[in-house]
Write a structure and sequence with these properties.
By secondary structure, the protein is mainly beta. It has one domain. The chain is built from one helix and six strands. The chain has a six-stranded antiparallel barrel. It starts with 5 loop residues before the first helix and ends in a 35-residue tail after the last strand.
């Protein structure tokens, strides 16, 4: 392996192993526009630091540059809401050998974190249906 391909290999290794190292990782598919030398439209997978809805997250991704047919590893920040995301990222473009900036939108797997319904509480003076009735004087079960 040449030294030029080492950063790409490390980025791919991190991308592949991240879901196993981080709990509740989010993932998505992005359509991005990359600015600068060798820029243009790109598509690719993204991993997010969390899968919670309505939250800012860190991102790690690999974009396929449609106009060049090359891969662009990138890191950035994003915001997730209702299974959609927007992000801004910085990546390394191999053909032009420089860093460039991209913005993207896409779909993701946010966890809306719906709470479980609350159990109804018994009225005051009513015994709980889960517990045996107690003797009010001694605190013992009634026969």
């Amino acid at each position: 392996m040449t030294l030029k391909k080492l950063p790409l290999a490390l980025a791919l290794a991190g991308f592949i192993s991240s879901p196993f190292a981080i709990a509740d990782v989010g993932y998505g598919l992005s359509l991005s526009y990359v600015y600068g030398s060798g820029g243009g439209w790109a598509v690719g997978p993204k991993l997010f630091s969390d899968d919670k809805d309505d939250k800012f997250v860190g991102s790690l991704g690999v974009d396929y540059m449609l106009n060049q047919g090359t891969w662009r590893p990138n890191v950035g920040i994003g915001y997730q809401k209702d299974n959609l995301f927007g992000n801004a990222n910085v990546g390394y473009n191999y053909p032009s050998n420089n860093l460039n900036f991209g913005i993207g939108v896409g779909i993701t797997n946010t966890d809306e974190n719906n709470p479980a319904p609350a159990l109804p509480r018994p009225s005051e003076g009513e015994p709980s249906p889960d517990l045996p009735p107690l003797d009010p004087v001694g605190g013992q079960e009634r026969p």
